[in-house]
Amino acid sequence: MGEGKQQIMAVQMHAQNPIEQFQAKYKEIEDGFKNWLAKQSLPVEAAVVTATNFAQGAFLGALLGNFSPDLSSSMPSPPPGANFDPNVMNAFQQAQALSGGPWIQARNFGVMAGSNAGISCVMKRLRGKEDIQTSMTAAFGSGVLFSLVSGVSGGQNPVAGALQSGVFFALVQGGLFKLGQQFSQPPAEDIHYVKTRSMLTSLGLQRYEKNFKKGMLTDSTLPLLNDSALQDVKIPPGPRLLILDQIQRDPDLKAKQRFS
Q1: What letters, b where the CB count within 10 A reaches 16 and e where it falls short, cover 161-179?
Q2: Quick one: pLDDT at residue 210?
Q3: CA distances from residue 201 to 12, 100, 167, 195 in whole angstroms, order as listed
Q4: Which one of 50, 118, 160, 249 is most buried, by most CB atoms within 10 A?
């Protein structure tokens, strides 16, 4: 009996490849950090979220700045006292703001990402939910700050330009939020594999979920599973042993086996 358990544990350890182990460890650390953060006061949580997302945005901006040439230094400056059309000057200032090098792009992306995450964090804590209003409010705030810091708003009235940028950011984010909701809804067939998916994930065998679906082995068939059925859907011997052992250990499935 003891040797059988050791063999099962060895197969389970072998079944989990290094990438899955790294992902599981990363998820564990991430969940621990989120749990710690949720216990902090609102100012502390907002500050930490803003700082971490600012750093991520700045890193991404710096990378993009390194891959794109710094065109701002090569752009000619308008001669002093030149009386150009305000729309022309506004477009020129926007081009300068968006063509900076790594440090400029790091600042711009950092401000945009940090402010968006910070505002969203405060809104979720105050309102108790994350919905399209929270998402659009955060996008509006980040759009305004990004416009003011980067100089994209330009023109004679930068505040009005920044507000326009905020509205644009909010509308885009609202559309993306609605689009994400539609794509995030699971297919109708997935409701028949909730127990199966949970079991396979706990064993590190989630790659075989498609085999269960191909053989139409739904949650209701789990108490009836045997080695032959798993072999028919082309699941290797090692994972088959783990799955059958897990079914035997599950009290609910084991009880259903007695009544079937």
Answers
A1: bbbbbbeebbeebbeebee
A2: 92
A3: 12, 46, 42, 10
A4: 118
